[in-house]
Amino acid sequence: MPKLLNRLHRASRIGYTALCVWLRYKTPQWWDRFRGNNPETRDMRGIHQRNADQIFNTAVAMRGMLIKMCQIVGTRSDVFPPEYVSTLSKCHDRMPARAFDEVRDVVESELGKPIGEVFAEFSETAIASASLAQVHKAKLQDGTTVAVKIQYPDIDHIIQTDLFSSRRIAAIYQRFDKNPMDFLPLLDELQRHLRMELDFRREVESGDKIRTLFDDDRIVHIPEFHHALCSRRVIVMEFVEGFKVTEKDEIEAAGIDASMLMPRLMRAFNKMILAFGFFHADPHPGNILVTKGDGGFPEFILLDFGLAKDLPDGFGMGIFELMFSMMTFNESAMLRAFKELGFKTKNDDDNTLIHIARRMVGRSDSGSFQGEFTEEMTDEMFDAIRENPVVEVPTDFVLVARAFSLLSGIAHTLGQSANALDAMGPS
Amino acid sequence: MESVQLEYSPEELMSEDSYESPLYGGDVLCHGGYINDQYVSPRGKVRRPAIDAWRTRLTEEGQPLIHVPDAYVPPHYPNYEQAKYLMKEGLVQPVSRSLTTISILEGFGARIRDVALPDFDKEVVEELSGTALAHLDKGLFEAHARDEAGHRDQGGHKQMWEAARDVGLDKPDIPGDVLMRLMGGGTSNRKAERIYPELSAQMEQTIISMANILVVETFAEDVFAWAMELLGDEEVSADPKLAAHLVDCVRIDEKPHVDYLTVALSELRGRTLISQDGKRTFEGSEVVDHIFSRLLRGSASNRPKEARERLQQEIHEQIQDVRRAENVSKHFESLDSGWTFPVEKDEQLEILTKAA
User: Fold this and answer.
1) Structural domains in chain A?
2) Which residues in chain A are closer than 8 Å to B186, comparing Cβ atoms?
3) E-assigned strands of A108-206?
4) Does ipTM exceed 0.85?
5) What is the interface size between A and B, counted as CB pairs within 8 Å?
6) Which pTM value belongs to this model?
7) Chain A contact for B294, CB < 8 A?
8) B353 assigned to some structural domain
9) DSSP conformation class of A224
């Protein structure tokens, strides 16, 4: 399909989906208002399910950026209705794969050789497929089994189109809704992240860097890369197997101590975020596998380093101080931490930050290390920030908060707690 | 004769004296304040006499108190002479790290408010009314937590140590590995093994938590002395008077913590604990003494060894000139007190005062 037609097709499909979702929520509200009914009492499950199904179908058909958005929703069982979570979580690694012929060209053009020259065997069926790429199992000429990650051939164009359409739709929505959410900063962020994710060479470098960080700690395993066979659109790496981190029953059946999943996972991410200052910023369940480590404790295999990120010096300590002050209900310390992290107000007015800090510490009169920074407090903080648009939130903070938020979603699915401070604290 | 008050509400135990002026650490508002130019600890108006009353009752009952002899307290590493020597050689980072770590550990003391207490009525044979134990979740733990980590607009010990560091060392750089070292480098968290599996997990964990914090608070006496001497030294401190005073305020604040934890654990020693299934009883003294001795020895003997290895490594990392690094390292070692834990076996530890 010519690019212009393709762009029109995608824009109209996304726009149509957005309109249907909006109308499915608005129409009952209008009807209830007309009839004098209380909209709060209406059973919304059917509407949620129909909307989730339509969004999923659109995302699967359109792929690209929409899948990324669905992945975020699919991990937030604490925020979104179960119909959305169960439906959209399928976007993690169960996306229908592209036909082999479509991706074969990418492999051959990136490696500069026919597939048969590099690989002794190459499975034509993908073992995983997601928003930007799919993975095939293969065997090198020396018999080593590997996983080959291949970028979809037309993904650059798809993402550009989706971002353009989403921006237009967000602008139209904001014009028509009385209390609109501001989606544009989110789209800006998404655009920045997608650009990083599309260069696989960066992903290989990031994976190598994180592997060194866990050299002396067998809590995390990073698959080895075959560097000579990695390029901008193809990665060839060690083939690893494990359970998806949310498959609790299977993990327990394998004799792995499932009760230590979240404490150890939080510890691994604490190390990256608070101590190393370099972290895997996309910890959705499809990117975290679990194997049996020493003593039956879980060991994590981290995949997909497209969104790995360096943090500025001192940023980890700033995040620690913010979490600590939130959990100990110390608003003056929270204010200092906000400033250290780079939160800004118009005219350098502290009152807005103080207001946010007060709102966060105002929920109770005593603190608790049992509380989750991720679930309760980030939501509360972003609510407060949304209501006080003069605040400039540092990009790195948004990424860190999102990572903790994804971990919180995993914890929720496992019935455990994503308690960052408890996982790092001295006993 | 007037009866002694032994029951208190949480509000009473957290009530404040009427300070004439607040305590500031640099530009950070801290807790407590001054009366007649003397520093007075926070939340002490009723807490102080309450702890005294519970202790008096305990000693009148003839019960001994848990006590750690000075000889068991490991000296801070590096000691005052060593730390001063490093600073004069331009190595401020170890001291900055040490003070930052102390501040974080103090803050983590606030975790005491999250201790899930056992059902004392079901798990202890004797009556507990009018004891410190009965007030742990009625103000004692919460007051302790607020003292350590601050609350609302007031800084606690965490912020006071940070202020002492920044005032004394003139806002030094914070080493980037502080949190990594705190998390234990390569060691991954594992489940703690039960010591008395017949007791409820809450009972065991409550004793462990209180004993652990009491050991830390008792060892802190030497940390205070070290920090006051170092940060109060005009040769190396940017503001010796204020820096040492802030540490002294923390020292004064910690006394009620040591006192109430000592009384509560000693109360539990004098009682009988009931197993989870209700079929067995344990002498409180057996359980408390065993757990306390184990923690005491572990804390005293492990930490100096680790700290020593790390500091030697740091000297060599920080000083590029190999010969100079060797010389500094050698002289640094010569200033070491060579302290070792004086008792061979847990059973030989003396952890009690004599009964009244």
Assistant:
1) 3-91+156-195 (no CATH), 94-153+200-240 (3.30.200.20), 244-427 (no CATH)
2) 216-217
3) 119-129, 133-140, 145-151
4) yes
5) 105
6) 0.82
7) no
8) no
9) P
